[in-house]
Amino acid sequence: MTDQMFPIITKGLNHWFGEGEARKQAIFDVNLSIEAGKLTILMGPSGSGKTTLLTLIGCLREVQEGSVHLMRQELNGAAEAKLVLARRKMGFIFQAHNLHESLSALQNVQMGLEVHGAILSTKRHQFKEASAYLLSLLGLADRLHYLPGNLSGGQKQRVAIARALVGNPRIVYADEPTAALDKESGANVVRLLKQLGRKRGTTTVMVTHDNRILEMADRIITMEEGRIVDDKTIGGQ
Amino acid sequence: MTAILARLLGRMPIGWLQLLHNKTRLAAAVAGIAFANILVFVQLGIMFALNTTVLLPYTLLDADIIMSSADSNTLIGGGNVPRQRSFEALSVPGVASAVSLFIGNVDWTRDDGNTTNLQVLAIDPSQGAFVVPEIRNKIANLLLVDTVLFDRRTRGADTQRLSEISPDNPLKFEARGRTLTASGTISIGGGFSSDGYLVTSDQTFLRLFNSRIGGAPNHILLKTDPGADVDAIVEKLRVLLPEEKLKVRRVLDAAKADQRYQTTERPTGLVFGFGVVMGVIVGLVIVYQLLSTDVADHLKEYATFKAMGYGQSFFMGIIFEEAMILAIFGFVPGFIIASILYQILNSVTGLPVLMDVARPVAVFLGTIASCSISGAIATRRLASADPAELF
Predict the structure, then answer these.
(1) Which residues contact B130 (CB under 8 A, 6 or more apart)?
(2) What mean pLDDT comes out for the span B178-199?
(3) Pair B236, B92: CB distance under 8 Å
(4) CA dihedral B206, B207, B209, B214 (to 10 degrees)
(5) Contacts of B311 in chain A (CB under 8 A)
(6) In chain A, N or C: fewer CB atoms in 10 Å?
(7) Does the CB of B257 have a partner CB in chain A at under 8 Å?
């Protein structure tokens, strides 16, 4: 098994929250290899550690114990500068859409590209075109210049998805991306993520409660109280 | 504006868009910074006015060297100088002439019943070379006893009447029991130690101040030969004259020492110096509050950017951008209002509260610096935290 095939590998991963007496273990000895180009779903009841695990393998939380290997790089003890570079290769879709309230839908998506540098105005123009194109693919062509405050929950979530995908990330992390969407749009989003996986080899890790989309998963990992209790690979997809 | 900033910054002008998004807060922030600017401007204005007024009486004198008693810190303070020192000084090669300078304070009860305090400067009117050319011809009139030159910018006085004073239209008034005749005017203006000035002859001075004698003036002024090395002569005089009893300085150095003394050791100077420090501190606190609240309110959005791979320098850039915009927007009204307040202070107090070029530049740069530093401190929490902890 090579790093190429498994962009995310964890070994003996433990994580705690709090200090002193209140210190509580949230993740217990997680050993996981996630295959490239596949849609992996993390399931489990509230408080089972799904989101914690997602943020640990997503460079958003400092690794305390154990190892996280992300695209051939060890995250445990990595310098801030390396983490910043690693984050640029990923897209993150958050539970709350976390759009910037002062930026229009289009500008929010552009920020997903400008992270790679946009000193030249011609480059910024290209970024704008690409962002507008992606938003129109997501059905927001007539909402490009709306501020998030004037968009519905589902529209905001689609903007957030566009922002995560616009930079052609190698890995997409999604935390309950369909929670704010109706059945049809939720299925569309997951279908889009799956297509990306197939076309570009994008690896997707998704936390969800949503039973409606489980059928599209390549692999379903179930967590309970910080431990992996079930790990199913669905063959032939 | 957004497009210009984007071109200028080479990125999305997030700071500008953030400020523009919440216009109420932008207005409050601009008002806060303008207020901080006004505070500092007014305190600086008063402090520099004090500094200027200390120097004003010296500008009447046209002398190279001033000899004062060792305990004298100001023109009027300190003991007297024996007149014989002027003869000793004249023995030094390069010293051309000497004159005694007498200084005292008189109260002038104006027609409206209020009292004005006037500082009297007196020299021998035949030694007109020791005053600046503008009043040299007026000095000759002072040969008449009880004749004075009146400061037409005297605080509280009827400036209209004072400006009409001429030999043909003199002003008669009473001070220390004598009737004095003002036959001409000078223009100095009041300071913190007196409301205005009188220039008169040594003889009139001695009549006004019965306890003073001609042999003990406050200072002795010296003029040197053209082209002489004044510093070398000052050194020679210091060697010749008893150092524990006399201070020998260039007039300019004496004026600067007076200014230093009045601003750093006298209560009035200290109060306004302290006012400047307080103004700067209050300004810093206002600016810090504004910027840190702004960062706190956008922390979630910044955390998202951090999760997307933006580094600390990006956030510093946003904060610096906001700091620049707020500093410029706050400075313009601050400067305009401060200029108006200067005019009002000027006419009410008679103090030379004036705007120069260096002060707005210093205040503007100080505003940008404090905005940036405050922003940098406020973003520290962002630098140390994992993005996941900030959502």
Answers:
(1) B61, B62, B63, B97, B99, B123, B221, B223
(2) 88
(3) yes
(4) 20
(5) 80-81, 84
(6) N
(7) no
